[in-house]
Amino acid sequence: MSLKDQLHKLLQESDHQLMASQPEVSMPIIERMYKKMQKGVTFADIRTAENVVTNGHHRYLAARLLGVYIGSQDSELVAAKVVRTWDSVMIVDVDFDKPEEIDRHNAYDAKCMDMKLEQFLELIG
Question: pTM score, two decimals?
Fold first, then answer.
């Protein structure tokens, strides 16, 4: 089963303890985070308010797909205009990150793992 198919299945599950606050997620971002998490890269906690993800939808889903822990910190619900169930969240093939943002994330992740960027990029393939 493809990662996208696994994500579709995950979004349809009813056992989510958290709700979503954005209407769509980017498959390319989830794929990058998933690959990094598989290689042991850790990510910042997601932000939640009143059982709603306010920041970190992609991190949350990648971690759920892998069955790994992702921390959460309380935040305010002000950013969430609409609270929605995960089965209403659309998966899009558009990359929300620009190439320079991807480069910045990779450089940050390499630094956090105490690796040279080249080593890190080789690790995540």
Answer: 0.91
**C-alpha span between 48 and 83 (Å, rounded):** 12
What CA–CA distance (Å, rounded) separates 88 from 90?
6
CA 23 to chain centre: 14
Phi, psi for 92 (deg, rounded to 5): -115, 150
Closest CA to 88 of 15, 11, 29, 34: 11
**What angle, 0 to 180 degrees and rounded to 10, lies between the N-to-C axes of helices 27-38 and 57-66?**
50
Average pLDDT along the chain, 125 residues, taken 10 residues at a time: 96 89 96 96 93 95 95 81 91 97 95 94 92
